[in-house]
Amino acid sequence: MSRPGIEVSSSASAPATGVPTDTSVFFCVGEATMGAIDAPTRITSLDQFVSTYGARLSAAPLGYDSVDAYFHVGGGAVYFMRCVDGATVATGDATAVATGGTLNAASPGTFGAGLKLDVVTAPTLFAVESEGKGKSKSAPEPERSEFLTYPEATAAGQFMATVSLAGTVVATSPTIATIGDLRTWLAAGPYLRLVGGTDTGAVTVGSVTLGGGTDGTLPTTPSGNAVPTALAAIPKTLGPGQVAAPGKSSLNEHGAVLSHASLNNRVALLDGAKGEDVTTLKADAASLRGTLQDRYGSMWAPWAIVPGVAPGTTRVIPWSGIEAGLCAANDAGGNPNQAVAGAWGAPPWVLGLNQTFSPTDCETLLYAGVNTARLIYGEVQAYAFRTLVDPNGVRAGWLELNWARCNMAIVADSEAVAQDYVFAQLDGRGHTIAAFGGALQGVLIGYYNIDALFGDDVTEAFLVNVGPQVNTVDKLSQGILSAVLEVRMSPHAELVQIYIVKQPITVALV
Q1: CA-to-CA separations, 39 to 10, 234, 322, 472, in angstroms, rounded
Q2: Residue 390 Cα to chain centre, angstroms
Q3: Residue 19: predicted pLDDT
Q4: Is residue 469 part of a domain?
Q5: Are residues 261 and 329 both part of a single domain?
Q6: CA–CA distances in Å: residue 81 to residues 138, 226, 272, 309
Q7: Is the pLDDT of residue 13 over 60?
Q8: Distance from chain centroid for Cα 60
Q9: Distance CA 409, CA 325 (A)
């Protein structure tokens, strides 16, 4: 290709997008009406959530509510993971349409009893000659009914299928002929799965209505495995971000979210129980403080009052989904080290709080490891931004939650750099090592330029060591390329002091 110029190429698949580094993503675990329970789905709007996971589940609405909150306050992408406890799928005998088959709902829940599959003979569209190509100008315009004919004029063995949910058609197939065609089409959708039957056998005209299906325990049992199992299905490869199981407040559930965050380079947002008092919140935080995972998460109280689903109503929802949306809105500005609190943590959509803690209580909770939302001059704000770390403990260097989020971002960016050096040759003159170190310095310079790293110049803010003491000959001989990054992350102002000194007019000001 000559230069300057343009070159456009096409292929059957998109190029690899590389290691995910977007820290604004929300990983949300919660109950839902329907949807997969073995993998999360990326959701970018509430409408998509409803089409994938169903309408708000009245018995356990916090998954829906938290996704709604995230989008309302500035979030862009959620990986939602449905958790279930003892739910079962609806089933039906598929013999009417596929000999020897069984039809199952694609996911568990009572919604499956409202699913119906209809197979009909496919209509045929007749071609009509246009004017100037054999059609007489005097010929009358055909009625619409002349374009479509039904069973009598259809080629043998051509069928179409529709799926209905609660009486509404939600999916329509292309033309199919065999049981294998039907199975493949159903497998690509979120509603039904066909089990059994011979792929080469022909489908037949008929209908199948599913029955049964249960939602299991709603909400899921706090001491059970629903939340840990759901979290285990969210892979690290989806990248960094905030992770929460909104409203889940047992030690078992909090511990599972914290553990997931620590193992997958994410930050946990934990909710205190609805209406929980200061003493209980302190005890909850104390049960998590002191573990190696405490620097990866934060706890939040109280819950927020937000607009309801129906006009003129309100809902009370946990803070985690709101804070995840605020983090996403902040990250659009490019600085994950900014504390998402105060003026940076004020969601206009929130109407109020279900509890009011006194300033003394808020300070007590802060030192205990619980962040609070407060009403500040008539505006609801997140008004603390700490991890669960003990300020007097061995991990006090991770006290501020913005440091946890900044570290998450640096880890993700460093992993993206490192991926480019997997399989690079390690030459004896150190060219690859130098390039590797330079690429990592470029990452950290970006953070220094937005003041996320602290220092008068870059030499005070960070150090990238790829020297011979790190990349020894022995390690290189084993195919190991190493780097040590030292960073000084900028703190946020947690206390602002102003001293006013009155001087008499006879004293000069200096």
Answers
A1: 30, 7, 24, 41
A2: 29
A3: 84
A4: yes
A5: yes
A6: 62, 11, 21, 22
A7: no
A8: 19
A9: 17
